[in-house]
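@channel sequence for tomorrow's demo:
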Amino acid sequence: MHYFFSGFHLDSDKKALSFQSNSINLTKQNFQLLYYFVQNPNKVLNKDQLIEHVWNGRVVADNSVDQSIYKLKKILTSVHNDSYFETVYGLGVRFIPEVEHKEIAEEKQNKQQKKVVNLWWLVPLILVIAGVIYLQVNRNSKPVPELSTNLLMVIPSQGMNPSSEWLNSSSGLFIQNLLKLSPKISLKNYSDKPNNLNHQQFLETQWQLSPKLKVLSSEISLDKDDFTLTLSIEDKSGYIKNKKITNKNLSQVYSNALSWLGQELSIDASTLENSGVFPQKPYLLELYLRGLAAFAAHKVDEARNYFELCLENDSDYHLATLEITKILDLKGESTKALALLDTVLAVNKLAEITIEASNQKGGILLRQGKPEEAKALYLSLLKDFAGKKYRALVDTKYKLALLYRTLEQTQKALDEFTQLELVLNETADYQTLADVYQAKASILLTLGETQKAKTYVQKSMELFVKLGALLGQARTHSLMARIAKQNANYSEAITHLNQALNITRGLNNAFGTGATLNEIIEVLITQGKINAAWKLNQEMETIASQIDFTAMLLASKRYTVIIAEIRKQWKKADIYLKEHKQIAQAADNRIALIENQFMAISLKLKQGQLDDANNYLTQMDEYMYETNKKGIRVHFNVLKADFLMQSGKTKKALALLNSSKILAKANEDNQAFTQINNSLAQIYLQENQATQALNVLKESALYQPPALPYLLLQSKAHKQLGQISKAINLANQCKRNAYALWTRAEEQYLASLLQIKKSEK
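structure tokens (generated this afternoon):
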């Protein structure tokens, strides 16, 4: 087998490595190590795996693996300076380059048969490489029905002309944005392609799943004053239709392209062309395309400048408006984004742009903590377009269903998703159907219907696997992790989250990677693994800064406050809390500001600053009364009970906690349930009611709460009962399981127990 990466050629039969036909000398050990990495590109490999497959399980020194990787990296970079290995802290090492593998003889045969490529025998291998069969799918299950006859995948331009790099990277994006406005086109995302599959392998897999899929590719170049756009439409049979368009006017090039695509794809191109998708002044299209290229490269500020220049010269160019509102939302400038969207909604005449602008606006309102306004917008939109079959309205209905869930109107949410299931089955939109299955599973999980949730998770994963949607698979793994976490199976949760992380990293998807890190950090904190959580949180904060994503940055700042509080680093916690508040205020994010209030109350209570805590509690009480949110009401009551307990109002604290425990049980909020029992146990211990303390702690056993303070409270209860040996045993268990949280105070407590035991002898 022959492997190709970064200009290198590895021949596994001859055990040889070369670079541009020049032989590279490797030791047997170095070759075996490299061979294993190229067989597993973009997978995080740990030391145990490397020792088993490269060293054949032999006992090796602790640093032998690291030294071998270092030597191999040095050899490769000395030949061709590039990035080859990435260390994923706490997990292992990943081989970064994209790897292609093939038999040379077959490659020559394929070159002779360009039009009709028969790769049926490769399908099982492709599926293995893509990682889409890591979940076992029932072999007897029915195949996914054919998708829409207008299912289309737009391939990014591959041109490499440095003088027109912005054209190469934006041409496919612009064509995709145009076609998205047609109700007769259902677009499939090429960005789901795994890095370890080449272009042709990926397409063969997709055609197996969706035989009627058409693939549109475009190449554009600039030669002197002429733009030349070459379009190509290919189907599964190998039939290819091409069109070359040359013109000095870039707008005219794409206008002609849209007309040709209209004929080939049976869409009404004239309606689109006359609805403001092309700017009034031809040179503005270049600005728009440069903005698309910059945004795709995560150069957010540069993209913003280009789109703003578009609007300065043509305020009615709504495609540029929709792009800049995405940027403003990412940067937390939601007020400006809403103003621009309102302008579009007031003057635009194209239905698809109205729907897209409304969907964007609803998302911003929701992030601002204005769910009722978002709901009214979605309902009004659906009423205005009742009976119409615009594809974008499916997104509206999906968002509305999610919104009902946010408003804790779970039955309405389930009803909406059930209706969507019927619509999506009729229209063969299986990508969105998989999302619906996933959303239903998440709701059922919150309702405590775990078995039903697992059923929908399975259905979701099967569809995502068959569709080859790796990001969907990653999200489903995250949901599986939440199910495992609800059952207190933290090791299984981490396994699923690591699988999700491997997928998002393999796709170089920064948003997905950050979202997955967010969930891993939460699990690690729950387990008391604070140092590991801190490292991953730093990585998440870096990603948030790189892609300029305010919501992710807020999540990262929230964790810095929580970790500092756990470590009792009060000054740092106050600084981080202020930073979090400043970001939330700048973004006008009401939900984040409420989170900030919660964290402020917790910090004040931990430091015994009761007057300050009471001020925050009074403010929050008003909010709780206005919103009547049951979910956060429980957590608020836990903080309020802590305040009452510290204020000497024990009976009131007990009454509040017991009533809140009933609510937590009804909400299936196991985390709050165990937290309440911990608080009750603390009160009972203060009242010298050790047996009562043990009874409430026993109720939490099913949910396997974090060791600290759960085991420590049990230890103190047994101490009150005079059962010193049990107290010592539980304290030692707590120390082992929550070592990162074990402080000098806990160590002194354990020492006092040992002293009592010694005196008994």
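heads up for whoever presents: The longest helix spans residues 410-427.
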